[in-house]
């Protein structure tokens, strides 16, 4: 409204030239406006309101806001008997998430019967062939058209407005026949929060004259862009993790409708043309076989539509579907044909090409044409699509099928918070889940490190996910430890790395749910059947009992549970005194591992209802707290009044933003602070932080750096300021290339170095550090210690081969560096006595990509190092790169994903997390962003430990800066 009022004050001649009015073709010679974005044979009912009536402009002339799209969708539902509107959720910013169901009135009158019929076909167990044929003959095929899951890829949602109008209003025989045979779901604006961020940027950069330079801010936007949702998550990667309300709201409706076609409309570079599926290799090995053949059929249909207008297009080339969390891949693993569209991003004013100008309206026309072409193909191929869908699912649930004899077993864990997260995900994805009611012994199993185990006992209480179930393809894609790409894809990838020095893969190749969640699991090569009870994951949450604390010395919560940190942080924020266990304790028979929380009566004598406050916060978290009346721990365990129960300092957290910070890492940590820990915190502009009063904070997080746009390290002035702040008592946390930046310079802040910085130098201190860590866990026998005679002792390095000369090491490292992964899961051995590993176990699987290879030795602490030692018979002492490996051991590095042997050698025994004292403060470095996609729960616990426990465990207070 304001922008139109301001325009009214301008001279009329100027107003006529603004982007708020249609741009005259004479102003932009060569601009190719398509006369109509609708089919020529369309006969739109004038009783159905057109988009211009609600938007105030024709589709494709400008970009519609989220509110305009929603309002028009509701108006269509009111006006047309072909349309029903469903609100399936709300975004973080409270915007409605809606879709339209468009079909013939007869189909809309039986939507429940259609959904029930699709459910029966989707689970063909016990389905008679006659019933199957009846359903296939009777049911319309369902298509789900999803638009603009990336909020700044705007043409999708604008084309959705045109598509839903055309389907609602067109009276032609072709459309009426199509809607008799199809139910079309139009999900017009999959990311309304991101779109509004993008719209704000458009509003702020519109000028008085058209701007057709795709390098201009009107086209590029600015940090944090509109791609992600409110917390800047990429919703097109969230389908397998379902962390976000947009995804969590959408999945149950997709599963209720069971579409045979799922369109995902995107945009790409402004100078590109139009790309659509099918994808090139690598393909996820669990995709249904008809994905490729039917993909070609649908591609041919779109190609014919584009050829009619001489519009350029291409298929595949850079689009791959190995990662199963993309919209089109996830939908395909559910049985639909997932189809990707990628339209050149043009913004409102159009873009100058080498040969001509191209309009935004044309980009909308491309998306509309593709959508209608796919609907026509689905109508034509309806019977074939149904047949392939049911046949494949029948094979998936068969004992002789690809998943006939495999079960994924999640071992019991004391980390109830994390197990709840898993059960919640299983409920959202609607997988079938069982639990063992007693121990079961199996002949064979394999673990997350690729070790084959024989005669394995599965503990009572283990969760069992039997792969032989209707959605077994998606289950396998999410829980299989080590999905592998085809030999041809692997060959192509290797050739590209060697010939061009770059990867063909643009997403992570490791994503396994149990590994990302930090839960121990096994794969058993059989369909487990004995001693199982069916589990309803949605009903598993229990309300913790209120402790009897009348005479309690303290209320305690186990550090095994991730939610203990949230309890501590929220209580500290309320002003209560909280303690955390630096070593294991046991009070009143309650086992309290490292990281356990205690709120004592003595520390909180000024709080009349300290018990009520603690129990209220714990109940909100669903976390069990217990009362203890005795502060003495048995044996050598930590007494409640001793130094090992540290009084924590309230975290005062700042998160660096803007500048060259990676918005994905920033958003994931922001989400963690808001929704997992529940902490108030501040976002600081990186470009101004060097002159801010940092004394207000005792924890600062430096996100991973944004590398796509050539973003460099933080400024020297900021690093110098942070150095002073850390030395005054702050806890500085940095990940990825932000961690790398702290190791650089003539006088770096930290002792940690990267491998390329030290590979040509003296590596003996780093090797000695590994010897020390190994020997600390392998003490000499008592008879060796208590002997009397002096003897020459063998040095740890006596049998280790010598390193090559410095020049050879540098050359070798340059060679190995080119094979660093796009993203793979690595196994990290853990120092289980370190407070940063509270809530973990003896190893952590976590992501590694083009991450810094962190080199550290004492006095730097290394709570997590890459690689897990495993006994290997007749193995001699040797070297992996620079790192010694003891005799009789091998180092398991790769847990899942593509990690070339050269990369495994390069990162072996590097630090994944370091912690070191710097003055009165500390610096904690992560090799890879720990909060990746909000789903890396094991690594996120380490970060949460750093934030909540760090100010009390590893630094001195208070911070006083000059």
From TrEMBL:
<feature type="domain" description="Peptidase M14">
    <location>
        <begin position="62"/>
        <end position="344"/>
    </location>
</feature>
<feature type="signal peptide">
    <location>
        <begin position="1"/>
        <end position="16"/>
    </location>
</feature>
<dbReference type="GO" id="GO:0004181">
    <property type="term" value="F:metallocarboxypeptidase activity"/>
</dbReference>
<protein>
    <submittedName>
        <fullName>Peptidase</fullName>
    </submittedName>
</protein>
<dbReference type="GO" id="GO:0005615">
    <property type="term" value="C:extracellular space"/>
</dbReference>
<dbReference type="GO" id="GO:0008270">
    <property type="term" value="F:zinc ion binding"/>
</dbReference>
<comment type="similarity">
    <text>Belongs to the peptidase M14 family.</text>
</comment>
<dbReference type="InterPro" id="IPR029062">
    <property type="entry name" value="Class_I_gatase-like"/>
</dbReference>
<dbReference type="InterPro" id="IPR000834">
    <property type="entry name" value="Peptidase_M14"/>
</dbReference>
<keyword id="KW-0378">Hydrolase</keyword>
<keyword id="KW-0862">Zinc</keyword>
<keyword id="KW-0732">Signal</keyword>
<dbReference type="Pfam" id="PF00246">
    <property type="entry name" value="Peptidase_M14"/>
</dbReference>
<keyword id="KW-0482">Metalloprotease</keyword>
<dbReference type="GO" id="GO:0006508">
    <property type="term" value="P:proteolysis"/>
</dbReference>
<keyword id="KW-0645">Protease</keyword>
């Amino acid at each position: 409204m304001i922008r139109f009022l301001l325009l009214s004050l301008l001279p009329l001649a100027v107003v006529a030239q603004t982007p708020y009015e249609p741009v005259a073709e004479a102003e932009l010679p060569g601009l190719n406006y398509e006369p109509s974005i609708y089919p020529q044979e369309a006969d739109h009912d004038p009783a159905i309101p057109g988009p211009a009536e609600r938007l105030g402009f024709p589709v494709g002339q400008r970009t519609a806001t989220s509110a305009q799209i929603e309002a028009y969708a509701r108006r269509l539902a009111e006006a047309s008997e072909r349309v029903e509107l469903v609100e399936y959720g709300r975004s973080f910013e409270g915007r409605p998430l809606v879709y339209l169901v468009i079909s013939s009135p007869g189909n809309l009158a039986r939507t429940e019967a259609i959904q029930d019929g699709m459910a029966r076909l989707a689970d063909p167990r016990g389905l008679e062939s006659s019933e199957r044929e009846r359903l296939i003959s009777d049911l319309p095929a369902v298509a789900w058209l999803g638009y603009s899951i990336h909020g700044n890829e705007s043409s999708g949602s604008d084309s959705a407005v045109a598509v839903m109008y055309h389907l609602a209003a067109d009276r032609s025989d072709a459309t009426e026949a199509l809607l008799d045979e199809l139910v079309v779901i139009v999900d017009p604006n999959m990311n309304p929060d991101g779109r509004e961020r993008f719209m704000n940027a458009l509003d702020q950069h519109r000028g008085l004259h058209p701007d057709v330079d795709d390098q201009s801010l009107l086209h590029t936007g600015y940090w944090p862009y509109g791609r992600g949702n409110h917390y800047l998550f990429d919703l097109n990667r969230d389908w397998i993790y379902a962390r976000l309300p947009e995804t969590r709201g959408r999945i149950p409706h997709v599963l209720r409708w069971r579409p045979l076609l799922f369109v995902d409309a995107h945009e790409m570079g402004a100078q590109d043309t139009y790309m659509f599926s099918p994808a090139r290799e690598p393909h996820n090995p669990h995709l249904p076989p008809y994905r490729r053949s039917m993909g070609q059929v649908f591609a041919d249909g779109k190609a014919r539509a584009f050829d009619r207008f001489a519009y350029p297009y291409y298929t595949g080339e850079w689009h791959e579907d190995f990662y199963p969390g993309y919209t089109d891949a996830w939908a395909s693993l559910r049985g639909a044909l997932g189809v990707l569209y990628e339209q050149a991003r043009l913004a409102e004013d159009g873009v100058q090409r080498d040969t001509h100008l191209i309009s935004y309206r044309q980009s909308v026309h491309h998306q509309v044409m593709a959508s209608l072409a796919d609907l026509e193909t689905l109508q034509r191929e309806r019977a074939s699509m149904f047949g392939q869908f049911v046949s494949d699912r029948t094979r998936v649930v068969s004992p002789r099928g690809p998943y006939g004899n495999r079960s994924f077993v999640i071992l019991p864990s004391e980390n109830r918070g994390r197990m709840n997260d898993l059960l919640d995900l299983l409920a959202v994805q609607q997988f079938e889940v069982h639990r063992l009611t007693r121990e079961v012994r199996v002949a064979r199993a394999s673990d997350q490190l690729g070790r084959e185990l024989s005669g394995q006992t599965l503990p009572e209480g283990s969760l069992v996910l039997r792969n032989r179930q209707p959605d077994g393809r998606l289950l396998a894609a999410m829980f299989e430890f080590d999905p592998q790409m085809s030999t041809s894809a692997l060959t192509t990838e290797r050739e590209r790395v060697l010939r061009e020095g770059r990867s063909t893969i643009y997403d992570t190749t490791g994503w396994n749910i149990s590994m990302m969640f930090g839960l121990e699991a096994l794969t058993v090569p059989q369909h487990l059947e004995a001693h199982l009870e069916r589990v309803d994951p949605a009903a598993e949450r229990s309300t913790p009992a209120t402790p009897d604390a009348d005479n309690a010395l303290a209320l305690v919560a186990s550090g095994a549970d991730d939610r203990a940190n949230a309890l501590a942080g929220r209580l500290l924020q309320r002003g209560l005194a909280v303690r955390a266990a630096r070593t294991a304790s046991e009070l009143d028979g309650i086992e309290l591992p490292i990281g356990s929380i205690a709120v004592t009566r003595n520390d909180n004598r000024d709080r009349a209802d300290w018990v009520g406050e603690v129990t209220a916060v714990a109940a909100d978290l669903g976390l069990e707290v217990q009362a203890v009346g005795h502060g003495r721990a048995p044996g050598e365990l930590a007494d409640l009044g001793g130094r090992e129960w540290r009084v924590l300092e309230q975290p005062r957290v700042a998160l660096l933003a803007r500048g060259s910070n990676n918005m994905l890492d920033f958003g994931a940590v922001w989400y963690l602070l808001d929704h997992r820990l529940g902490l108030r915190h501040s976002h600081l502009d990186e470009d101004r932080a060097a002159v801010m009063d940092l004394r207000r904070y005792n924890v600062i997080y430096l996100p991973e750096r944004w590398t796509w746009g050539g973003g460099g390290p933080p400024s020297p002035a900021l690093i110098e300021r942070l150095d002073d702040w850390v030395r005054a008592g702050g806890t500085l946390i940095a990940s990825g290339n932000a961690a790398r930046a702290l190791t650089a310079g003539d006088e770096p802040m930290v002792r940690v170095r990267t491998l390329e910085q030290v590979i040509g130098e003296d590596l003996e201190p780093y090797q000695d550090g590994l010897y020390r860590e190994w020997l600390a866990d392998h003490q000499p026998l008592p008879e060796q210690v208590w002997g009397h005679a002096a003897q020459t002792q063998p040095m740890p390095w006596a049998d280790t081969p010598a390193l090559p000369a410095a020049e050879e090491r540098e050359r070798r490292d340059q060679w190995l560096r080119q094979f660093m992964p796009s993203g793979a899961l690595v196994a990290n051995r853990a120092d289980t006595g370190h407070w940063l590993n509270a809530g973990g176990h003896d190893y952590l699987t976590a992501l590694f990509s083009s991450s810094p290879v962190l080199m550290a030795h004492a006095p730097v602490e290394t709570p997590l190092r890459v690689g897990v030692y495993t006994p290997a018979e007749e193995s001699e002492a040797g070297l992996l790169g620079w790192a010694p490996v003891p005799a009789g051991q091998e180092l398991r590095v790769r847990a899942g994903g593509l990690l070339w042997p050269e990369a495994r050698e390069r990162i072996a025994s590097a630090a994944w997390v370091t912690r070191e004292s710097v003055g009165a403060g500390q610096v904690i470095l992560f090799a890879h962003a720990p909060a990746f996609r909000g789903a890396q729960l094991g690594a996120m616990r380490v970060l949460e430990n750093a934030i909540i426990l760090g100010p009390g465990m590893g630094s001195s207070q208070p911070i006083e800066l000059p």
